[in-house]
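Entry 0007
Protein: Protein rlx
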Amino acid sequence: GLPILDEKGRPKLRDSYLLDTLECGESSFAMACLIANRKYGKNGRREDVKTHHIWRHPPKRMLIYSCAARTAGHTKYIISFDPKDAVENDLTMERAQALGLQFCKDNFPGHPAIVCTHPDGHNSAGNIHVHIVIGSLRVRTVERQPFMDKPCDWEAGKKHRCTSAMLRHLRVAVMEMCEQADLNQINLLEAQGDHVSEREYWAQRRGQRRLDHANAKLAAEGQQPTQTVYQTELDKLRKQIYACIKSELRDNFLRKLRLLSIAFHSIHDKNCSIAA
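Output (structure tokens):
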């Protein structure tokens, strides 16, 4: 996750986390990755490092996120549990860590891995996170799985491939894991709720930080902030449209959009459009 900072903006250790390694033998994760890289002659060049990013927000169920680091060459996935699971379904850090370890064994066999669980994310939503970091090189040949279509997907010395088939497999695997563990979940194969892109999510986060900083200055001067929650322009537009949708009559809906100067074009009715 994002680093935790002290009052002076310096990184500090988290208060609570669990960490285990897999496929590393007697070595540390970093050393296991370096040994594999040297053995197979991979990840020695800067251009060998590739990034894969799959983002789903809001994180009220599961987030599958992957990226490549610029050091030994590794890939990272995050499983983010529903905050309600801790209260409603007895989800503890220990239980989440056990689920993450089994998920890693089942879906990334042959890869040196770190599985680390901490009790909250950077957005303070209270959702337990499991971080799975795998070395990009497979250190042993594994049994072929249905989502594997090339020998490089199961042979030793080959690099991890984040294909569309594998991502779909991982989403299904996460859903099955949650169902078996009696945890809350959403359908990761379909869009759920408000669709917020990664770009908009981080724009909101940056805007909120700027707003909080400005409000802190106002408070120090004895002034009352007029706004405490930052909204992106897309979020403002989304809320205006949803407010209009609540109207049962189509004509009232269109009239409200006109009053808000919102332009749209219906893909179902070519004659239905409003100019801003």
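Curator remark: Residues 198-274 form one domain. The radius of gyration is 23 Å.
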